[in-house]
Write a structure and sequence with these properties.
The protein is built from 22 helices and 22 strands. The two termini are 33 Å apart. The protein is an alpha+beta fold.
């Protein structure tokens, strides 16, 4: 307590030193707590259900396509559930849009189709009603629906008698079987649940619905044992199937691991390492400040030592200061981490495809506080132990003789600052690469005109639209109605719009045998009408667009993106070439009639090319419309909704947004990544500049007497400037050189996340070096100016 009181008085007597040291460490500790909370939320926290750690996910993997998260066909799931013995409960679900309508305007929700035992397996009972029971999943069973708490409150005003009432679900009458508790959103972010229909007989496995399978193991059974049993079942299923193999491996893993991919893990791990580098830089800065402070107090330390103060007492005095600094910085950092966590999660939750709801509850809980306390103590030791030890071991006679000047050499401080600069280079290169990637994505040339185009999506279910003819007729009626709407110039229909989604199909090229592995390649397929290309102002490179006679009775035709044509017919003219979609030998041949520029269909993989089929020949129940407007596209939103309701009052429009918004959504992840790394790099640069300034200022203060002698002997300003800047330049060059070498390896962690820029992009590396040079020059200006202002007589009387 005596050391703490002494340290507290000392820190209060030096407010600028205290504020600077606390501010530096608060940034580092706050970022560290923030990233630890993110790791805990995304990678460590189990699902929020009773015994959530024991929930196991089952999926397929295919070594050929390097896919390790494939769904399980419905028939495979039924076989496994019937014959497996390692799981106590074996469940499945699929996700989809669920249209819900009642007295008001129809709405769509993220829904889940689940096996009836799901709620019981989770250990979560409905808030109201019985939920689903065995038998609800057979075809002849009356349709039931379970509502999420928010849907019950918003759409039904929290009606306490809602259970047993009839509502319209996907065009069918359904009975409300229950309401789930507040915040329940299993399996990911779902608000409405229907029974999973597993009794539909299908002939081919590839035509079946792919399910997400999960369950709870029998007592004493390990995931490895379960994986071996399911692997044997998969091999038998594949052997009995006449088609191409779907998978060659079963993946059994904790449930939460399914929803955070390797890319996300790599991003979070890279960010955590980056944050630790910021913390190290902050600790180095505080250590430099403490070294300079102990140097200024070395005469006091020498006097205390001479009158009998023990080395342990003097070390404790120094450590007490660093502990107080770290404690205050930890409290401030905790507040910064809380604020940053909530702000970041608000952004993530509002994204187009947020992670599961329990992962977006990023909170700094007790474990995070304990971690932060451990980090703060470690930071105190790192930042304060060496300066305290050095101060306690200063030779008393030398310190008394020198008056304290130079008692603690500047080599340690210079070495720490050099390391600081090196770590700063690593972070700035990382930030620069991600920023360059965002700039390249947003600056890429779009072959279509996204401005003044609004799009929306509809889901037509077979209860109201049983066949392709009914789907195509509704699409035609919608097109005509929208074209007649004031303010709309052109209307198109497509199975998906750019940067949103595309369905994959297998493709067989005429006259070409499958690859050596015997697998057909898969391509993204979009069904679209002529108006789609007109509304996007997307023209062909060669050939023609779809025409009126490309209908259901016409010959089968397609448009290909140029990269896809070059992939399948390298060095050849693709116009007139033919291919089939799917595995069936009786599938019709489709002729290529035109080539289009590449249009990204999937926002997260913007380099995947696609092919286009006439919507009349390949209607899709789930389709989008595009409307080019005269002015603001959102001005037509209400008229568009009214047009759809006029055709079908139970059909909601969802994803009603401009095409420019789709382009921006596609860049969301990269923008967020660039913003976070940019923040880390910016803090690191400020800390490095402060560290360089502190070392040069200390260097000038220690050589004040020498500078005065030089000036008394006639040394000019140029020589003084060279002496000061030369010290900083040496540290800068060494730090930048080491940092660039480290950054070459560190940047490889981001190689798969960059677009339009390589992990060793020369412009980024050179730019970082130049930027740090400018920052170092600015940081050196004040110490240099101070050196130039030293008067010879004042310097000779120094100390």
């Amino acid at each position: 307590m005596q050391e703490l009181r002494f340290a507290c008085r000392g820190l209060l007597r030096s407010p600028w030193f205290t504020l600077t040291a606390v501010g530096m460490l608060a940034i580092g500790l706050g970022l560290t707590m923030f990233m630890f909370g993110a790791i805990q939320s995304f990678m460590l926290r189990p699902p929020p259900f009773p015994d959530g750690e024991s929930m196991i996910h089952v999926g397929y993997a295919d070594s050929l396509t390097q896919s390790d998260s494939l769904g399980v066909p419905t028939g495979d799931f039924l076989t496994m559930r019937r014959e497996q013995t390692t799981f106590a409960r074996f469940e499945a679900f699929s996700q989809g849009i669920i249209n819900l309508s009642g007295d008001g305007r129809p709405e769509h929700y993220n829904g889940a189709f689940i096996t009836p035992g799901t709620f019981a397996t989770l250990g979560v009972a409905p808030l109201m009603g019985p939920g689903f029971v065995d038998g609800d999943d057979i075809d002849a069973a009356p349709l039931k629906v379970v509502l999420g708490h928010s849907v019950w409150q918003q759409c039904f005003a929290g009606d306490p008698d809602i259970v047993g009432q009839q509502v319209q679900v996907n065009g069918n009458a359904a009975t409300v079987a229950g309401v789930m508790p507040e915040h329940f959103a299993f399996p990911i972010n779902n608000a409405v649940w229907l029974p999973l229909q597993t009794g539909v007989a299908v002939l081919r496995r590839r035509a079946q619905v792919n399910l997400e399978v999960w369950g709870r193991l029998q007592a004493g059974v390990t995931p490895q044992v379960a994986s071996a049993e399911l692997m044997a079942l998969l091999q038998r299923i594949e052997a009995d199937d006449a088609g191409d193999a779907i998978a060659d491996r079963v993946v059994v893993k904790p449930y939460q691991d399914e929803f955070i991919g390797n890319t996300t893990r790599r991003i979070i791990s890279t960010m955590f390492v980056s944050v630790l580098l910021v913390l190290v830089i902050a600790c180095v800065n505080v250590a430099n400040l403490l070294i300079a402070r102990s140097a200024r107090r070395s005469r006091e330390a020498a006097i205390r030592s001479a009158i009998g103060a023990s080395r342990l007492r003097m070390v404790l005095d120094g450590l007490a200061e660093s502990l107080l600094i770290c404690t205050v910085a930890g409290v401030i950092g905790f507040g910064l981490a809380q604020f940053g966590s909530e702000l970041t999660m608000q952004v993530v939750r509002s994204s187009e495809n947020p992670p599961p709801y329990w992962m977006t509850d990023l909170r700094i809980d007790g474990i995070s506080v304990l971690f932060a306390a451990a980090v703060a103590v470690l930071a105190a030791l790192v930042a304060g132990l060496w300066p305290a030890w050095r101060a306690a071991t200063v030779a008393s006679a030398q310190a008394l003789r020198d008056g304290g000047a130079g008692a603690i050499g500047g080599r340690i401080g210079r070495g720490l600052t050099t390391a600081q600069i090196a770590l700063c280079v690593v972070l700035l290169v990382t930030a620069g690469l991600t920023l360059r990637s965002v700039i390249e994505r947003e600056g890429m040339d779009l072959p279509f005109a996204p401005d003044n185009v609004i799009s929306g999506r509809l889901s037509l279910f077979d209860s109201s639209y049983p066949g392709n003819a009914e789907v195509a007729a509704f699409a035609d009626a919608l097109r005509l109605r929208l074209e007649a709407t004031p303010g709309i110039e052109a209307v198109g229909i497509a199975s998906s719009v750019p940067f949103s989604y595309a369905g994959g199909r297998l493709i067989a090229i005429e006259g070409r045998a499958p690859a050596a592995e015997g697998r057909l390649p898969r391509v993204d397929v979009v069904s679209a009408d002529r108006g789609y290309f007109d509304s996007l102002q997307l023209g062909v490179l060669r050939g023609r667009l779809f025409e009126a006679d490309d209908d259901v009775d016409g010959r089968r035709v397609a448009l290909l993106s140029a990269p896809l044509a070059a992939r399948f017919w390298p060095g050849e003219d693709a116009i007139g070439k033919r291919f089939r979609l799917g595995e069936a030998a009786q599938a019709p041949w489709i002729e290529v009639v035109g080539l289009l520029p590449h249009v990204a269909q999937i926002g997260k993989d913007i380099e995947r090319p696609a092919l286009y089929l006439p919507f009349a020949q390949q209607p899709s129940r789930f389709f989008s419309f595009t409307a080019r407007t005269v002015g603001d596209p959102y001005a037509s939103a209400d008229a568009i909704r009214d047009a759809v309701v006029a055709l079908d009052p139970d059909l909601p429009v969802y994803w009603l947004r401009s095409l420019r918004d789709w382009v921006d959504i596609a860049a969301f992840d990269h923008r967020l990544l660039a913003a976070l790394f940019g923040m880390f790099g910016g803090f690191a640069m400020l800390l490095a500049a402060a560290g360089l300034y502190a070392v040069l200022a200390y260097h000038v203060s220690q050589r004040t007497r020498e500078i005065g002698v030089r000036r008394a002997l006639g040394a000019g300003d140029r020589g003084i400037v060279q002496m000061v800047l030369g010290q900083g330049l040496r540290q800068l060059l060494i730090g930048v050189g080491v940092g660039l070498l480290l950054a070459l390896g560190f940047a490889q962690l981001l190689a798969g996340l960059l677009y339009g820029v390589t992990a060793h992009d020369p412009a980024t590396f050179i730019g970082v070096a130049v930027l740090l040079g400018i920052v170092a020059l600015v940081a050196a200006l004040v110490p240099t100016r101070r050196a130039l202002c030293v008067a010879p007589m004042v310097a000779l009387r120094y100390d």
